[in-house]
Please model this.
Amino acid sequence: SYSFCTLLFLSSGFSSFFPMIKPISNYLQRYRYGVPLACAAISMLLCGLGLILAGILDDNRHLDLHLLPEAAAAGAVCLDGSTPGYYYRSGKNRDFWQISFQGGGWCYDEKSCYERTKTPLGTSTLWDSKIHGEGILDGSCKHDPLMCDANLLFLPYCDGSSWTGNRTTPVTYNGKKLYFRGTHILTEVLKAILKVGILDAKIVVLSGTSAGGTAAEIHANIITEWLFEHIPELQKVLVLSSSGWFPDTPNSDGVPVIENEYKSLYELAHSHIYPGSCTKSGEEEWKCFFPQYLYPKIKAPYFLVKSKMDWWGTRCILSANMTGCAENSMAGCAIDISTCTDDQINILNDFGKVVEESVTSNTEMFNRPGNGVFLHNCESHAMLTREYLSVIVVNGVAMDQAVVNWAQANWINKTSPAQNTIEECQWHNDSTPRYCNPTCGPDHIEKDTSVGHNISKFFRMHTFMAWGAVSFGLAIILLVVNVVCIKKHSAPGHMKIINNETTSYTEISEEDAAANASGVRTNSDSFSEQELSANPP
Model:
């Protein structure tokens, strides 16, 4: 609109060539001080309207919170005893559903679980009424062509044990009761979602990120059985884990940190894991937190997206101590690879091999029709729930495309071949950059270390609305300035052109009027033809 106004303004100089625009030309000359401001004001008004409309359209992809007070009454509560719930967004395809577990690590003792109750990962009192996902939770076909039309049920994480807690009585720490009721939360949520239309589902994707990916793996069998039992026309359940696979391996000093943490969590939460999920009944059941032991037991088609150099693994397993992540001699390197020595790069490469072997060693599952993996070497975590999920490419296949290929193969074929994409190169220990994959460049490194990393807390709708309001405000200011300018340059006592073809004026300035009264000729006097001939201007 601003360009159009400007062109009209400039066109006034061509009025002699185009008579049809002469009226416009005259008007623009008369109010030439106000036209650019008016154009700017109109532009800002349209801009504001567009931004607000964008906000409204963007808001169509948000998820609404549904709390379950009846679940709390049945003893299904978060760590702090607050009411659990789920987020829901309806999709265009009533046959297609995604159930997604939120990630956020674990708490391993009373103190860490107590601290967790002060965050949204331990209490529902801090949950937002609306959230907006990214990546496979975005709802935009631009970012997620696979599942943008699906109905999304997002399960917020608040029990600290990947929904495995089954402790009957709470633990008191620092005067606060801590509840470990994850399995009961999951049961009540599954009952509740029957009321939102999932009974029409034909395909369900069970997904999760980080600790949520581990939850999807742990609960895959029991949820699959439950869905087939309650949904009459259900055809297929698929399991998709994003960065939910952490290997059973010690830290760089040989200390089994992650093993000890999982054991502690299992005992504290009285974790209940689906019988026969990975071990014989009662036999080191805490090992079921490691997907490499769960993997052979998962019955549904399963796909893993994982980095061999996942920063959570390098910081919270390889360089961790019992006091926390990134605490031993590898800590600096794990946090900032530019500081790594050549020997430390070798240690990281060895860790990557351990991750890969934990996935590929079970050849029966690795090659089972319907399954698949996408293993890359980028220092990233939870990439499927990022807006740049298509950045990483391995062997010519982008990460998001690998997921699409796997899912579509399973939808079309009952027995599709395994869809495995694995990056074979290792980080450079004698040159920079350390990455061997060019799509792992610095701009693509995931630096987010927050526990709620798989959901954007920044509501884009609010951003659009705010900028729209700013645009309207600027438009009003410009309009006010415009009116002031027009009045100033059109007020009595100032020169005003009314006809381009004559030299007559409707008004003269006060200075000219005073000069006339004193008998001094001014520029605004009328001249005779003789005077003009004798004294040409």
